[in-house]
Amino acid sequence: MKDLSIEIFKDMGITPEIYEYGESIWNSLKDRFEEVDAVSEYNQIKVIQAMQKNKVSEACLIGTTGYGYNDLGRETLERVYADIFHTQDALVRPQITCGTHALALALMSNLRPGDELLSPVGKPYDTLEEVIGIRPSKGSLKEYGISYRQVDLLPDGSFDFENIKKALNSKTKMVTIQRSKGYQTRPTLSVQRIGELIAFIKGIRPDVICMVDNCYGEFTQTKEPSEVGADLVVGSLIKNPGGGLAPIGGYLAGKKECIENAAYRLTSPGIGKEVGASLYALSAFYQGLFLAPSVTANALKAAIFAANIYENLGFSVVPDGREPRYDIIQAVTFGNPEGVIAFCQGIQQAAPVDGYVTPEPWDMPGYDSPVIMAAGAFVSGSSIELSADGPVRPPYSVYFQGGLTWQHGKFGIIKTLQKLVEKGIIIKDFDRRNL
Question: Fewest Cβ atoms nearer than 10 Å: which of 78, 211, 322, 388?
């Protein structure tokens, strides 16, 4: 069987030496993969439990058109999400177009003119800068008289509790906590650390709304941030919880008042959650959620594999090859734009869709520098599928995530290595005798 694998990898442009290098790394990771599978099994049963409790039926999969009144599937799905996240309510809609939209919805519906938003974990993800008004944009929070301040993490990645305490004031209405690293090389926050931060904030200001940007973190642990004090958790359905099947959508789960505010902002005052046709998306939403724990586990395995492949070659990786995982993103720093571009082009060449396309950096809306994105996905922009992206700016780090199957994730990473070797960015003797 091994000879067959070598041959088909060779047919796909992978030299036997690089294939053998990948196999040597994979063989060292089997205990780590067992740990990932154990978390996946727990979360799989949790999802089934929530679906059974809420009596998900065939009728829930049909969907509605028009106003969407009395949409059984939509209402049941939102109860399922509330149970999975242990919250009072949830809003799960195809009308939420992306993760940034879901976050903007949460912020704009729960903040009012004169309020202040605080980020105690440093700068948020690039696309939120215009939502907040850090970079001027029409319709930003700043235009509506909502101020913003942030407290950066300390150099070792820990919370600056002293300055967080100073930053909390009478205007602070909401705190936003980004779980994942975004386009930074800081550590991803575990649910435990998020809970410690929220407890500290609530100890000073119990009335402050604590919102967690949960993108890329769902189902990577057995608990979610809403189980350790978050009033609101927010994410995208074309990331972890959509399981690679959701064609669009986002979710908010949290306290009933926060969700009601978001629903009125999404639709209209006086209408809220009562309208919003689910069209033909519900079957994919349910089935994607069912598959999400397993798909997330596959993406975690690919991230662990990538970390070990590149760390072993001397590159800076975050997290490193041994650290626990709290999201599906793997950062690799090359120190030059050529490395970022070659890595993304390798991922694209491993794609089942648009595998013949060569991605190049471009000025994407919402970003302050050219960005390169590789994603030959069945759902456009789906970053739970095998994908990689990064801003073409110092320190020239690439951010890899996804892989609906472990086998695809493994192939994608080996393809990136082959591409970097071919371009002369990595120079190493991969002869199997020297592994």
Answer: 322
Q: Give pLDDT, residue 434.
A: 45
User: Inter-axis angle of helices 16-27 and 282-311, to 10 degrees?
Assistant: 100
Identify the pLDDT of residue 3.
77
Sequence-separated (6 or more) residues with CB below 8 Å from residue 434: none
Asked if 387 and 378 count as a contact pair (C-beta separation under 8 A), the reply is: no
Neighbours of 382 (CB within 10 A): 23
pLDDT value for 431: 57
The Cα 71–Cα 91 span in angstroms is 13
Which residues of the chain carry a pLDDT beneath 50?
Answer: 432-435
What is the CB neighbour count within 10 angstroms for residue 112? 12
For 68-96, b where at least 16 C-beta lie within 10 A, e where not — what string?
A: beebbbbbbbbbbbbbbbebebbbbbbbb
Q: Tell me if 396 sits within 8 A of 370, measured CB to CB.
A: no
Q: Are strands 250-254 and 397-401 parallel, antiparallel or unpaired?
A: unpaired
Query: Can you tell me the distance from the alpha carbon of 17 to that of 217, in angstroms, rounded to the nearest whole number?
Result: 34
Asked if 435 contacts 21 with a C-beta cutoff of 8 angstroms, the reply is: yes
**CA 255, CA 271: separation in Å to the nearest integer?**
19
- Could you list the beta-strand ranges (E) of 80-181: 89-93, 116-119, 147-150, 172-178
- 369 by Cβ neighbours in 10 Å (0-12 / 13-18 / 19+) ranks as middle
Question: Is the distance from CB of 73 to CB of 81 less than 8 angstroms?
Answer: no
